[in-house]
Amino acid sequence: MRYVFCCEGHGLFEVNQSMLSEHKANCLTCGAECQRVYLPTIWRWGDKLFREDGSYREDKDYECLKG
């Protein structure tokens, strides 16, 4: 699974880890120990929640939901 971590100096990044892991990660840039960030499921599954103009994305914006 992909988990999101936050480095105080470099922001958010994602790491693939087993569900049974301790969910610890170091920043990919500076190597600092980082805190796991808990995000809404829709953000992780559907990529970003907002469009570039700042408005919320809708079902039609996601490839997997297009009919």
Count of helical stretches: 1
Number of strands: 4
**Order of strands side by side in the largest beta sheet?**
2-1-4-3
- Describe the sheet with the most strands: 4 strands, antiparallel
Distance between the terminal alpha carbons, to the nearest Å?
A: 26 Å
Helix/strand/pairing class, anyone?
mainly beta
- Overall tally of domains: 1
Quick synopsis:
The chain is mainly beta and 67 residues long. It is built from one helix and four strands, in the order E-E-E-E-H. It is extended and about 35 Å long.
Can you walk me through this structure?
The chain has 67 residues and is mainly beta. The chain has one domain. The chain has one helix spanning 41-45, and strands at 2-7, 11-16, 25-26, 33-37. A 4-stranded antiparallel beta sheet has the order 2-1-4-3, with no helix packed on it. The chain is extended, with a radius of gyration of 14 Å.
Key features of this structure:
single chain, extended, mainly beta, four-stranded antiparallel β-sheet, 4 strands
Protein topology:
Elements: E1 2-7, E2 11-16, E3 25-26, E4 33-37, H1 41-45
